[in-house]
Design a protein that fits this description.
Blueprint: H1 2-22, H2 24-50, H3 57-84, H4 89-100, H5 108-115, H6 121-147, H7 155-164, H8 167-177, H9 185-194, H10 198-212, H11 227-251, H12 261-267, H13 274-282, H14 286-310
Helix pairs in contact: 1-2, 1-10, 2-8, 2-9, 2-10, 3-4, 3-6, 3-11, 4-6, 4-11, 4-14, 5-6, 6-7, 6-12, 6-13, 10-14, 11-12, 11-14, 13-14
Length: about 300
């Protein structure tokens, strides 16, 4: 846990330093890094990690509850952004994406290991691969294509943008239909290790964009809590886990149905770093995404450290 927190702080600080020293060149660098992830690393990770995934009926019920919870909280984010805050398309998309995409991988997995124990990590991985990956490549990229400023004007242009700028989705579909033999275990293990590269890239980019958005050219800590950021953070770390807990309670009424403890923790994870990728590719409001990711991560990590200290 301490190592994860140290990595978050170190790479975030590196991004701040790079933006303050190199300005737009650092911003351009993060764009190129996201392109490498999108067209190279993410398809590899997705295919070889998902192809060997095994699901059981009991675990599947909890995953269905997860999807239902995300559908509801995502709908709330859209309605509140439009009707309460009056946001435009790019800002609305930023709020919705940060609400439905959670950091269940780099933060969720180590938190499960620290707070619940290593025996609960497989269930946490199942959530990450079965819920978070499809939410990113189907829902997250779909929201970006529908509401982003870089996705085109007409419906056909946006649909084409969704497919052509989403190589990981093609890898996900392929992983679901191919036999296990197409994904050797050694490459599956390599894909999971390769996922570690997402943490430094993501938090480096977060530091760059937080520093860039400061009005006076210097970093403001904490980042400003604008109404869209507050809405995204509240829905992500308060409403989402509450909805999952309510749904899990209903699903657990039949005898023999046990929702894994890891699922409750995964449902409470903060806004995912991958929301920055979606915002970059499709032109959503990066200021909202960066602020929401920073605040939600700080609140969840701070709470986890307090729980771990008291345990």
């Amino acid at each position: 846990m301490i190592g994860v927190v140290a990595a978050i702080v170190a790479f975030g600080a590196a991004g701040v330093w790079a933006e303050r020293r190199h300005g737009q060149r650092a911003v351009a660098l993060t764009g190129r890094m996201f392109d490498v992830l999108l067209y190279g690393l993410l398809p590899f990770i997705t295919f070889f990690a998902v192809a060997r995934l095994e699901l059981t009926a009991g675990i599947g019920i909890g995953l269905l509850v997860a999807y239902a919870e995300l559908a509801v909280v995502g709908g709330l984010a859209y309605v509140a952004s439009r009707r309460l805050l009056g946001l435009d398309d790019a800002s609305t998309g930023a709020v919705v994406v940060t609400v439905v995409l959670a950091n269940t991988g780099f933060l969720g997995l180590p938190l499960n290991a620290v707070l619940l124990g290593s025996d609960d990590v497989p269930e946490a991985i199942t959530w990450d691969l079965s819920v978070s990956l499809p939410m990113l490549f189907v829902v997250g990229f779909g929201i970006g294509a529908a509401l982003g400023t870089k996705a085109g004007e007409s419906g056909s242009e946006r649909a084409r943008s969704f497919v052509m700028r989403n190589p990981p989705l093609l890898a996900l579909v392929a992983a679901l239909v191919v036999p296990d033999a197409a994904a050797p275990e050694v490459l599956s293990d390599a894909a999971k290790l390769a996922a570690i590269a997402l943490l430094p890239v993501g938090f480096f980019a977060l530091g760059v964009h937080l520093c860039q958005e400061a009005e006076d050219g210097s970093l403001r800590l904490p980042p400003p809590v604008t109404p869209p950021v507050a809405l995204a953070v509240g829905l992500r770390i308060l409403v989402a886990p509450a909805l999952f807990a309510a749904g899990a309670a209903l699903a657990s009424i039949p005898d023999g149905v046990v929702i894994p403890d890891a699922y409750y923790l995964q449902a409470a994870m903060p806004c995912g770093i991958n929301a920055l990728v979606v915002a970059h590719v499709y032109g959503l409001d990066l200021r909202i995404v960066a602020g929401a990711v920073a605040w939600a991560t700080a609140l969840v990590v701070g709470g986890a450290l307090a729980v771990a200290a008291l345990a």
